[in-house]
Amino acid sequence: FGEVVHGVERRSGGEFYFPIAAAALFVVTKGDPILFGIPILTLALADAVAAVVGVSYGRIRYQTGEHPKTLEGSVAFFTVAFLATHIPLLLFTPTGRLESILIGLTFGMLVMLLEAVSLRGTDNLLIPFGGYALLDAFLHKSALELAATFAVTTVFLVVVLAFRKQRTL
After folding, report:
1. Contacts of 68 (CB under 8 A, 6+ apart)
2. CA 134, CA 57: separation in Å to the nearest integer?
3. pLDDT in tens, 98-118
4. DSSP β-bridge partners for residue 62
5. In sequence order, what are the beta bridge partners of 69?
6. Between residues 66 and 99, which one has the greater pLDDT?
């Protein structure tokens, strides 16, 4: 009992940021089930899965600031973030299949990077609001614009990974 909040051996304000972010995001999105739901779903599921995978299976570590993260945890985060975006967009919006995939892939990568650079629980603020801003921008783009955004994001991620040994993320 109490291991969820106090089981982490570092200082974190995440347990306070989460309810604040959820309430504020609900107000900002005016309760829109997609613009509110996807960022909160991503935070709730992807962050938890990343932590479990990172602790249980993480072998490849990288430094982001105060504490190292694992590549395995980040890949798990990306996978869940992609699915938490792609499936609701595909099932509950008029977004096309290709657009839904491109939005999910790009959203997953960028929010994964937000999570990776967050310190002391600020991911509980950055993921909901960053995710909302990304979705709000992506939902109005054409497939060609989304493909270009995905390509640029992929190149950026490859550069970040290539130089991870020289610098912290």
Report:
1. 61, 62
2. 30
3. 999 999 999 999 999 898 887
4. 69
5. 62
6. 99
